[in-house]
Design a protein that fits this description.
Helix content is 34%, strand content 25%. It has 2 domains: 40 residues; 184 residues, no CATH class. The radius of gyration is 25 Å and the shape is globular. Helix 2 packs across helix 3, helix 4 runs antiparallel to helix 5 and helix 5 packs antiparallel against helix 6. The protein has 292 residues and is of the alpha+beta class.
Length: 292
């Protein structure tokens, strides 16, 4: 009888400690989930959400030991301005001989209006972040596979900044066949504090440059001069890639001829939005009027 009592007591203690361990692990897991969530979702203002795709306004991410300068928000653009800026970005993937646009047409249709809205509603200490999913051709082009792109957008020193987290990364849904717990592995944007790991190469383009910080050039952080891009549009100029910009040949976009009246209207809009100086305005205006 005594032996049975001892055996029961040991078994009971084993079960008790097993339950306690599972409870502790669950608590740690919840804590990890909460810490991931607070990194870029806490106090976020949701502008768009479709399953795991989103566009949000969030607080600026912190950089240890460095005061993050304020953004020039709110700032107001047309949806087409944002669409053209995002649509100008290209990448090279390893082993490929041809460059690819960062965003597909459906992705641009999704992002442009909400990024524009976000920039117009964000404050100086807020960024706009996004995650978008598109269908891309799989191996040999026989099928399509979902891929996702994430980034952080803000306007500072007269230029649009985008810090990419992922570009065209294979998307594994959070489900039965390809489980990927987004609480532990979220579709997170890029951050100011550290460059994201990547195999893609963003190509250098006219009116674009890479951000340079204390640790050197950030090839995941691109800075776009929208005023220069708009000035080119007002002049009806096609940007020419400089030699050695990446080796890939992108398909040329069809050139849309604008009337003198349309070009002058675009130029006036740029001046009204203070995207170009008075001197630049007068110079471009004189150039346009030469075509009369």
């Amino acid at each position: 009888m005594k032996k049975d009592t001892v055996a029961f007591s040991v078994a009971h203690r084993v079960r008790f400690f097993a339950v306690l361990t599972l409870f502790s692990l669950g608590t740690v897991g919840c804590s990890m989930v909460d810490s991931v969530k607070t990194s870029f979702e806490k106090d976020a203002k949701q502008l768009f959400k479709s399953r795991e795709q989103y566009v949000r306004i969030v607080k600026q991410d912190a950089v240890k030991g460095v005061k993050v300068p304020p953004n020039e928000h709110p700032v107001f653009f047309d949806t087409d301005q944002i669409r053209n800026a995002l649509g100008s970005l290209e990448i090279m993937m390893p082993g490929q001989s041809k460059s690819l646009p960062v965003f597909s047409k459906p992705e641009l249709d999704t992002l442009a209006p909400y990024v524009r809205q976000g920039l117009s509603e964000a404050g100086p200490e807020e960024d706009v972040i996004f995650a978008v999913i598109g269908d891309y051709k799989a191996v040999y082009g026989l099928a399509k596979t979902p891929k996702y792109t994430t980034g952080r957008v803000f306007y500072r020193e007269g230029k649009l900044n985008i810090i990419f987290g992922k570009i065209q990364e294979d998307y594994k849904s959070y489900g039965l066949y390809a489980p990927e717990d987004r609480r532990l592995k979220p579709l997170a944007p890029g951050v100011r504090s550290a460059a994201s790991e990547h195999v893609w190469t963003l190509l250098y383009q006219p009116d674009q440059e890479f951000h340079t910080g204390p640790d050197g050039q950030r090839t995941d952080w691109v800075v776009l001069d929208l005023a220069s891009m708009e000035a080119r549009a007002a002049m009806d100029e096609q940007p020419v890639k400089p030699a050695g910009s990446g080796g890939g040949q992108a398909q040329a976009m069809p050139k849309v001829e604008k009337t003198v009246e349309e070009r002058l209207k675009t130029l006036n809009d740029l001046k009204d939005k203070k995207l170009i100086s008075e001197e630049e305005y007068q110079q471009k205006r004189a150039d346009i009027l030469k075509d009369l």
